[in-house]
Amino acid sequence: MSRRRFPRIAPIDLTGPDAPASLTEAGISNRAPQADKWDGPDDRHGAASHWPNRGNLATISFAAFIAGAVTIGSSAVRIAETFGERVQVTLAANSAVPTDSASGPASIVSGTHPTAALIVTGLSPGPRLLLAGGILVMALTVVVVAAAIMYLCFRLGQGAPFAAALTRMLSISAWALILGGLGGQLLTGFGGWMVASELNADPPRSEFPFAASLDAWPFFAGIALRLIVAAFRAGERLQHETARAKRLAERLRRDTEGLV
To answer: Does residue 213 fall inside a structural domain?
Structure first.
């Protein structure tokens, strides 16, 4: 069995006239060895591999800004047209498709047109206000969501996403999706019903029945965003507790240094 040999260490005279004044002067340290400092994933893999970086966040924020600006512009044009002489409106239709309209080898058995895009004149102020209100509510919903996305990108770029202001902004966006998304559709639907009643006061004989479609995706999107808000609030509390623990640790370290 082989024996492992260790290097011999020369003794240090701590009592003679040439004794060192301290352990540091003697080359002895009472501190434990520390590992290399690592500030995050960017130090080892580079900033290019860290997502989302500032370039991606700026792109997303700019896209949200463009979406909000386009929505405001197009909605303003549509609202102005609603109060003009000619009003463009989409109504539910119940007109049959002629079976002899096919000229190819296939044939039509039966069919109906579910909707009709109309340009009407002579409308009263009631349906105009409802249609304009629906357009305005939907536009405001898109603008609020776009603003929340831009603010989220800003907070991510600052490195502190869990902030009370951001949580409130996301909560407002969630309620905007739920209430604004459904409310805008309801206003537009009621406006369409009033347009259909002014076109033909006898619904059974009208080509445009009193019917409207209601998309439920804004409601479910708002519910999903509410769950994200709950997660952000939990992260905000954790961030505050972590910061408080760091402050207490720093205070304890200073008190300990004062005692030493």
So the answer is: yes
